[in-house]
Amino acid sequence: MINTKLIYKIIGSLLFIEATMMCYCLAVALYYKEDDLVAFGVSILLIAMSGVAMKYIGHEAENSMGRRDAYLLVTLTWIIFSFFGALPFYISGYVPSFTNAYFETMSGFTTTGASVIDDVEALPHGLLFWRSMTQWIGGLGIAFFTIAVLPSLVGGSVKVFSAEATGPIRTKMHPRLSSNAKYIWMVYLLLTAGCAVCFYLGGMSVFDCVNYAMGITATGGFTPHNESSGYFNSAAIDYTSIIFMFLSGVNFTLLYISLLKGKIKAIVRDSEFRLYISLVSLATVAILVLLMNNNGYDFAYAFRCALFQVVSFITTTGVFNDDAGKWPHITWVILSVCMFFGACAGSTSGGFKCVRGVMVLKIVRNELKHILHPKAVLPVKVNDNNVSYPQQVRLMAFFALYMMLCLFAYFCLICMGVDSTNSITVAISCASNVGPTLGLEIGPTMSWNVLPDVGKWICSVLMLMGRLEIFSVIVLFTPAFWKDN
């Protein structure tokens, strides 16, 4: 049976963490003396009361968590966090529709970065800081954050980590998961702090550099300005963003081993990293040539725009320094491929993940060899690690589910009157947690507010499935999940 009391108890405790996060935003609202102060005060009170109620219901829970408990806990945590996280937007009146408020918050926690707010700059500083904080916490995962800070809070933490972690292969730096989580969070904090300092030196205000740093390192995409990074029109800020987006798309375990431990060869030998940097290089060169030939950009500006957008799309960050919707349509195809693949597993980025791309390429290569040598035994290896047959089957199942979900969302949006180009790029954008789309109705620089409410709820579910890599959510809808045995 599912240990519902334990789930109540843990979610109740996690809500106190969300209330604490909002207290920082309350402090920002107090500092700037703006009208979102009451909204945060009421939201914190409601979250704290709900947390107390849930902890009371689960106060006699047995501290033993099964695999089913972990999958249900992780999915419910993201849904409930987004529900309560939407309250400041809704109560303040700046996002008067709860559908829009929930969409905005789910987009933040899943680091999708798709926004339904037409004028971001009209929001008070507290709400802007809350938008950035949702994506920063969601970057590595809500439960993963808890494992690092309060490992005793989440019983069965290995199972919880498995339900929330991204990528088919897990790399550990330390036998204890809590220590592993702390090392990864240390890398995350160093990246965020380094990014904020570089932005500040590049001319940003303190408030802007903190918000942009959280969005870049979380590969989320929410920014305090409508023009995103294009607001500053600065080559220094653009290249700083490129560097930290690219690093945030690398496996954090690999970053720790190679940069902090000094084992540089580890990152060079990593097959996933090699595919990642190859995709970035090829896509940048292709778009560079197209922008120079078709849009009349000079080499320096074309290179900067091409590299920025490619890194933004492949890391699923979604910030922009130019309107890619006005680029040649062939560049849309290249950027769509980038948003589909995503960056590396074990990073804050979304998408299919480059490691899965490596596995697919090696499986296809082996199948071609099998045609000529039917009896040959050809293992699939990634970084000298054998990929077992069950892992290969899971990979193909993941790919099939990913495509089915995108096609389902595409069909639903078409039925709601959204044009074909936007429908497919919206579907891929949500499933890959990218944010921007490529089209005329909802372009890279536009908000998603034109979508119908039903479409926004479908996209919210798709964003959640994309962040939890589909299986963690889909398994809840299988009859076997709810059977006692």
TrEMBL record:
Pfam families: TrkH. It comes from the Bacteria. It is found in: Cell inner membrane. The chain crosses the membrane at residues 7-32, 38-58, 70-91, 136-162, 183-202, 239-261, 273-293, 332-352, 395-418, 457-482. Its main location: membrane. The keyword Ion transport applies. It is a multi-pass membrane protein. InterPro entries: Cat_transpt, TrkH. The keyword Plastid does not apply. Keywords: Cell inner membrane, Cell membrane, Ion transport, Membrane, Potassium, Potassium transport, Transmembrane, Transmembrane helix, Transport. PANTHER family: TRK SYSTEM POTASSIUM UPTAKE PROTEIN TRKG-RELATED. Belongs to the TrkH potassium transport family. This is TrkH family potassium uptake protein. It comes from Xylanibacter caecicola.
